[in-house]
Predict the structure of Secretory lipase.
Amino acid sequence: MVALIRVAVSLALLAVAGAAPAPLADRATPAPPSKDPFYAVPDNVESAAPGTILQHRSPPNAIAAFGALRANLQASHQFLYRTTDNHGNATATVLTVLVPHNADKSKVLSYQVAEDASSIDCAPSYALQLESATGPLLGTLVTQAELLLMEAALEQGWVVIVPDFLGPQGAYLANALAGHAVLDGIRAALNSADITGIRNPTVAMWGYSGGSVATNWAAELHPTYAPELKIAGAAVGGTVPNITNVVTTINKGPFAGFIPTGVLGLSAQYPELKTIIDQHLKPQYVEKFHKPLKQCLVADAAEFLFADVVGMFDDRSLIYTNPTAVRVLRENALGKATPKIPFFWYKSVLDEVSPIGDTDALVSKYCAAGVSVEYVRDIVSEHGSYAVIGAPKALSWLKDIMEGQAPRKGCSKKTTLSTLLDPATFEILPKFLIDALLDLLGKPVGPILFG
């Protein structure tokens, strides 16, 4: 994450130095989702089929990098659509549709951001807008930075759809909800033909870290929840298969803030977990522990930097031994079902959020069940830097399947010193960085067509 922020800030500073600010008339802060009636779940939502579009609008403000630098898109849309929560109940969330100039509307990429927050006000549909409020300490900076990866896809001419997969309550780590929201977001996009022009597209998915969890869950739920959807494949990086092991790994470290954020996110879908937290959280930590309900990822990371979050409870073994906590975490771990789509998978061997062994085990399980996986393990990167370093090769794989090239059958596993040494990375990374900078400077986002 630190490396991603560093790259994002560097590009932003370069662009700000040469870009004119948005006109003052366009710079009003949009209402956050918690105060915007567009996000409200309709009372009769259960009467609609999953993926039904309930409301449509253009985003209140233009899509913008870092909340300041307007993206020059052909069009953007927001849809409130029906989806399903962790317990099978009808709910609704928002999808953002980004349409580049010279769009090829026969190709759609569902991009899942690493929102990693337990407040609805951190949702990408809001964070990607001009003048969106970031909360304390630039809390939505990582989501805003991921627009650069989305723009890499938009430069291919693909329509990019971005679901608010944490739902209307910021239910971080409620992963069946996340998977449903991704699949229903694709359904909503397919239902939007009269508005967006999307018809009979090739569909793929991409996500890193928290975004990969939603992507993987969508892939696992796809055969039973949305079998009619034709999904060509998925690129996933920095995957987090086992939540319990992550708690052990990140406590007292730079990513310790994921623990309270995840607990609070799960509590939105599991009131019984909230009861346990309320019973066992030491009084002196109650206010601090609940701060993620009012702030976003970067602020959460700063708030709990190197904190002993497990020690904030009166029982350090609570998460490992309490029957309710154990059940909730197991229910939201990956590996419950077998996907039917091919994968490109990339992971840092030194990933300091989720141990590499957990991903190795999940990939092996998928492969044993007949899933095709191209798995790349990178030695010298870490969780944050590999979001950037691994992106060009993921994009190259996605380009192949979008163009109808059949992915490699079966499974392959490659451990490399650095993905930066891969020819595909050398081919794509310079253009990726140049396009990102030019897009920040106002270049029309999308492929340049001649003739």
Q: What stands out?
A: The chain has one domain: 2-242+332-440. The two ends are 42 Å apart (CA to CA). Residues 1-5, 15-20 have pLDDT under 50 and may be disordered. Residues 277 and 313 are 8 Å apart (CA to CA).
